[in-house]
Write a structure and sequence with these properties.
It is a single chain. The protein is an alpha/beta fold. Among the domains are: 150 residues, 3-Layer(aba) Sandwich (Rossmann fold); 214 residues, Rossmann fold (3-Layer(aba) Sandwich). It is built from 24 helices and 23 strands. A seven-stranded mixed β-sheet has the order 12-11-13-14-15-22-23, sandwiched between helices. It has a six-stranded parallel β-sheet with strand order 5-4-3-6-7-8, with helices on both faces. α6 links the parallel β4 and β5. The longest helix is centred in the N-terminal third of the chain and has 17 residues. It is elongated.
Length: 619
């Protein structure tokens, strides 16, 4: 029933629902909104009548906490390029310096509701030309017009030597940051222009006009207050909307909704090209397909590259399965190549036990465990000094959540920690899989678990050294076993079945080649000595006794490292909602043991344990 019909009923209370200003990845019913603007006074885009949003902006005394959230929320949207719709990530924009004129869909309710008409668009373009003589003018078409679904107010007939229609896919923040001046009627892009630092020229009466933040060509007499940008953001994004987290399936605050929308947008961005997947073991494919939308699994390098070239696609290879020639083949064919690996918050159980990963990484430069060449993770760490404070605050909170929950990479439950001699320094030496790629590519002179133990003992003759074998080695699934007698000749105790976070907490120091346990120790504030070159070494956070890397000549903070490693680099998928999700939700799921391991894989894992010699048939 329409709002107009409802208003005829006596004593009727009309409540309107509209999409919030941060909606979804794509428009339409296939992408449900992240938030709703629920208004019992009017509707936010009707400038001629009051609305709940207008009342909020006119009367609310925004406290310091709310304004701090507004500053951080604005920075988050700008850094990641989030807008109402989010089909395109941040990237290259147009050559800067243009005057931006924003078109809208013809007949849209926000135009008439904003006290404007089709004539307002002609008036806007005329003003942009008259007020900026000789300037380059870009008319930005609406996404729905770009897709051919609807028509706008401008066409090729409006172009001239200085004026160009632009419909190429582009992130709105890139578009706004390249503009010298912005003209709009009632588009939400005018609101985002204010957030980006512009004072847009506005020809309608949208919700963001009349507050002293825009150059208004119409009056809004009810709006007598002068707002700051952060007060406008606080009212429109923090107070007014109802936000919903589709992965958690519950109401939430703006920050959680924005983080979840970012996870879903990244999933979309990763899959905009058709994907040919290589080197994926059969049991992994159903899970890999969740991370790569519409992936096809190729059997040979040549088939993958050929198909990707024919479909303007990309090749994704499991990093350890990359052949020496694959990068050359992709480069010659003009096909993007990405490497895939497990993330650092992986699962409740071992990969060797066929437990699916809750996080995976995609790297278009290399792979994080190979220091011989750059990786996307290394690039993110190098750039982490330029991150806005809101991202570092998120990393601090995530690290605190991990420590409180006791989550690690595999989350294997074990026995309690024995008491160690209180008078001696306790050094934990984690064993590794000796034929693992991180050892082959990242180790130095020390390349075996026994030699690592000997090095730790030589440097610390009086310490109490605890050796923990790798769980895959203990299970007999990988190489790297050390004879107990030989190990005990240089260490004081071997601990096999134990909760890893508790063992790290009970230790004073960690010595490792390239183990992820070294990173987990850094999260817990423990000193770490590296005899190899793992991704977390070389940044001033570890004592490095192994190989060095000149590219890593920058000192970073622990939380900058955490942000790059656990937030920006991996992709996460929720086994409960089957949606892309945030690392924060993944930590919650892992803490509760919610891994979503299918029954078929549980059965197969048991068979693998019984018939380990036949495991290769599933490769």
């Amino acid at each position: 029933m329409s709002r107009r019909v409802l208003s005829r009923w006596p004593l009727a209370r009309v409540v309107t629902l509209e999409d919030a200003f941060l909606r979804s990845v794509l428009p339409g019913l296939g992408s449900p909104p992240t938030g709703l603007n629920i208004d019992d006074t009017g509707v936010h885009f009707e400038g001629g009548k009051p609305s709940r949003l207008e009342e909020i902006l006119q009367t609310t005394e925004f406290d310091a906490g709310l304004l701090t959230r507004a500053v951080q929320g604005r920075a988050f949207l700008r850094h990641y390029g989030l807008s109402k719709y989010n089909a395109v990530p941040r990237g290259a924009g147009l050559a800067a310096g243009y005057v931006l004129v924003i078109d809208q869909v013809a007949g849209d309710a926000s135009v008439s509701g904003g006290l404007a008409s089709a004539g307002s668009f002609a008036e806007m373009l005329a003003a942009a030309r008259a007020e900026n003589p000789g300037a380059r003018i870009i008319i930005r078409t609406h996404p729905a017009v770009q897709n051919g679904e609807k028509r706008g107010h401008f066409s090729a007939a409006d172009e001239d030597e200085n004026t160009t229609l632009s419909s190429i896919p582009m992130n709105p923040w890139d578009l706004l940051e390249g503009a010298a001046k912005v003209y709009c009627v009632s588009s939400q892009l005018g609101f985002e222009a204010i957030l980006a630092g512009h004072r847009p020229v506005v020809f309608g009466v949208p919700f963001y006009a009349g507050w002293g933040l825009s150059e208004d060509r119409q009056n809004a007499p009810r709006r007598t207050r002068k707002l700051t940008v952060d007060e406008l953001f606080a009212g429109a994004m923090l107070v007014y909307p109802f936000w919903y987290n589709h992965a958690r399936r519950c109401a939430c605050e703006f920050e959680e909704a924005a983080q979840q929308l970012l996870a879903q947008a990244r999933h979309h961005w990763d899959g905009t090209r058709p994907t040919q997947a290589l080197g994926m073991r059969l049991w992994k494919r159903w899970n890999v397909a969740r991370f790569l939308r519409g992936a096809s699994f190729a059997t040979t390098d040549a088939k993958a590259v050929t198909k990707a070239r024919e479909t303007n696609g990309q090749v994704v290879v499991w990093a350890s399965g990359e052949s020496e020639a694959l990068a050359d083949q992709c480069n010659a064919a003009g096909v993007p190549l990405l490497r895939m690996e497990d993330g650092f918050l992986r699962s409740s159980g071992l990969g060797a036990a066929l437990t699916p990963a809750a996080s995976l990484v995609l790297d278009d430069q290399g792979v994080y465990y190979d220091p011989s060449k750059p990786s996307q993770l290394e690039t993110l760490i190098l750039k982490s000094g330029g991150l806005p404070p809101c991202t570092i605050d998120r990393a601090i909170a995530l690290r605190a959540q991990i420590l409180a929950s006791g989550v690690s990479k595999y989350n294997l439950q074990g026995a309690g920690i024995p008491k160690f001699p209180p008078e001696r320094k306790v050094i934990l030496v984690p064993g590794q899989v000796e034929d693992d790629a991180s050892i082959r590519l990242g180790a130095g002179d020390v390349r075996t678990n026994l030699v690592l133990l000997e090095a730790a003992r030589t440097a610390n003759p009086h310490a109490y050294i605890v050796y923990k074998p790798h769980p895959d080695v203990l299970a007999g699934l990988r190489d790297g076993s050390v004879d107990a007698q030989a190990a005990l000749a240089v260490c004081d105790q071997i601990i096999e079945d134990v909760n890893v976070p508790d063992l790290i907490e009970a230790s004073d120091e960690i010595w490792t080649m390239t183990s992820l346990l070294g990173f987990e120790a850094l999260l817990r504030g423990k000193p770490v000595t590296c005899l190899g070159l793992p991704f977390y070494a070389g940044w001033g956070l570890t004592q490095d006794l192994g190989p060095t890397c000149k590219r890593r000549g920058v000192k970073v903070t622990l939380d900058q490292l955490v942000h790059a490693t656990l937030i920006d680099y991996p992709r996460y998928h929720d086994p409960v909602s089957n949606l892309p999700c945030t690392p924060e939700l993944t930590v919650d799921r892992l803490a509760k043991g919610q891994t979503g391991k299918p029954a078929s894989l549980r059965i197969l894992a048991k068979l693998q344990g019984l018939f380990a010699g036949y495991a290769s048939i599933w490769r």
